[in-house]
Amino acid sequence: MLDGVTAPEPAARGLTTPQTETPSGRPVRTAAFFDLDKTVIAKSSTLAFSKPFFDQGLINRRAVLKSTYAQFLFLMSGADHDQMDRMRSYVTNMCTGWDVEQVKSIVGETLHDIVNPLVFAEAAELIADHKICGRDVVVVSASGEEIVAPIARALGATHAMATRMVVEDGRYTGEIAFYCYGDGKVEAIRQLAAREDYVLEHCYAYSDSITDLPMLGAVGHPTVVNPDRALRKEAAARDWPVVTFSNPVSLRDRIPAPSGAAVATTAAVGVSALAAGALTYSLLRRFAF
């Protein structure tokens, strides 16, 4: 839907029109960049892992209760820059010393239950439209890369860019190797564009959050999805399209069960669960439990 009315067909959106050509007659390489939470999926991927981490003793009951309420607040209003900054600080303190193998095991065992149902049907269809048009699809998220990557693969995305945690001697150091957020997303997008020869002025981007304003402004065709209040205001001022996705569907049959090798690559996935507690802390620090 487009601000309460039926969204136009792909051709009307300009998605199926011929891509711009270079002077040599070759098509310009382009991509569509998608934020994850509340843009492609119907809830926060970071907050979703509080229960399995509680079950394995990594967080306490108080954190689970806060996480549940934070999920509600996130769905209602999202998180602003200050909250995200507090989240990053909280993550670096909380995760220090966590055993990576334990985190990998928990995520490998619970991934399917966590992401089902998760993905907006409208987002999946839009991704398919871009692929039909010959564009690469890139999922760009502040969540941990081992959470983002399997969802991106299930959607048929070409690339996934996400936050990476530092690991030494099998444990999290409490440091972030790369924070895929705000200007960090733009940095990652520009580096990928340089490698893949994308022309950003002909590329597309989709997000729900004011924190992704730099990403949206980095491409020629930004679209605002399920926006928070601040981003809706910016979109109106810049005359950007605003769309509403509201139909989550199951990916259970689209995401294959993780192999041993896949589970073994989840060293940095702890950032997703860590960020759950961090975002909870930043959103709920003014509430008493």
TrEMBL record:
The record's section on CDD domains has: HAD_PGPPase
Which InterPro entries does this UniProt record tie to the protein? HAD-like_SerB (IPR050582), HAD-like_sf (IPR036412), HAD_hydro_SerB1 (IPR006385), HAD_sf (IPR023214)
Transmembrane helix among keywords: yes
Give any Pfam family that matches. HAD
The annotated region (Disordered) lies at 1-27
Stored SUPFAM superfamilies:
HAD-like
A GO MF annotation of the entry reads: hydrolase activity
Give the transmembrane ranges: 261-284
What are the UniProt keywords, alphabetically? Hydrolase, Magnesium, Membrane, Metal-binding, Transmembrane, Transmembrane helix
- Give the family this protein belongs to, as stated in its UniProt record: Belongs to the HAD-like hydrolase superfamily. SerB family.
For this protein, the record's NCBIfam families field holds: HAD-SF-IB, HAD-SF-IB-hyp1
The protein's name = HAD superfamily hydrolase (TIGR01490 family)
Q: Which organism is it from?
A: Mycolicibacterium moriokaense
